């Protein structure tokens, strides 16, 4: 039976990544927490595919909005940092990513994908899972869906803002509206 993650401490992670400056480094939940940042952690199936670059680029194009909300974004697949870098170094017109404003992590041993319940074991790839984690490490939001469907950046930002109100947000709540 699946274990509930929302409302609990998020599984801790540290992994190799290609950073926004295209250097290899590490990303970790502990570092984000130490810096009092929200974490938007999302998983995608694999590099050099068709749906993935549309959402990875869309999030990067709006990264400043996440930054304004004190959030660090980390994209993750089970590919290596070398594959990530090759994809980043591929121009967007050639189905590449081009310059990104946030890190892409490499979950090559599948431990993080497994901890977050998004690993398709028999394929060794992740489902499209997105998790929002508070600066205190509490997993506040999760959504997981089929790999054929990209995410909606507006909705991710809306949910992040709703969580940051600390209040009760009704259906169709938008930033700036009153909470309950």
From TrEMBL:
Coiled coil: none
KW Oxidoreductase (keyword) present: yes
Boundaries of every Thioredoxin domain copy: 4-165
Keyword Cell wall biogenesis/degradation among UniProt keywords: no
Key words, A-Z: Antioxidant, Disulfide bond, Oxidoreductase, Peroxidase, Redox-active center
Highest taxon of the lineage: Bacteria
Gene3D superfamilies from the UniProt entry: Glutaredoxin
PANTHER family referenced in this protein's UniProt entry, alphabetically: ALKYL HYDROPEROXIDE REDUCTASE C, THIOREDOXIN PEROXIDASE
Stated family: Belongs to the peroxiredoxin family. AhpC/Prx1 subfamily.
Record protein name field: Thioredoxin
Natural source organism: Gottfriedia luciferensis
């Amino acid at each position: 039976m699946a274990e509930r993650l929302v409302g609990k401490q998020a599984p801790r992670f540290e992994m190799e990544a290609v950073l926004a400056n295209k250097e290899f480094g590490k990303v970790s939940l502990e570092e984000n927490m130490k810096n009092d940042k929200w974490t938007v952690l999302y998983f995608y199936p694999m590099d050099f595919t068709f749906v993935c670059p549309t959402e990875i680029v869309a999030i990067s194009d709006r990264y400043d909005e996440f930054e304004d909300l004190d959030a660090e974004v980390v994209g993750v697949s089970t590919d290596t940092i070398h594959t990530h870098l090759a994809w980043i170094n591929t121009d967007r017109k050639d189905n590449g990513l081009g310059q990104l404003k946030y890190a892409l992590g490499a979950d090559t041993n599948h431990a993080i994908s497994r901890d977050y319940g998004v690993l398709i074991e028999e394929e060794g790839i992740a489902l499209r899972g997105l998790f929002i984690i508070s600066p205190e490490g509490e997993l506040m939001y999760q959504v997981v869906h089929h790999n054929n469907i990209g995410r909606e950046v507006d909705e991710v930002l809306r949910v992040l803002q709703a969580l940051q109100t600390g209040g009760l947000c009704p259906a169709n709540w938008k930033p700036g509206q009153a909470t309950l």
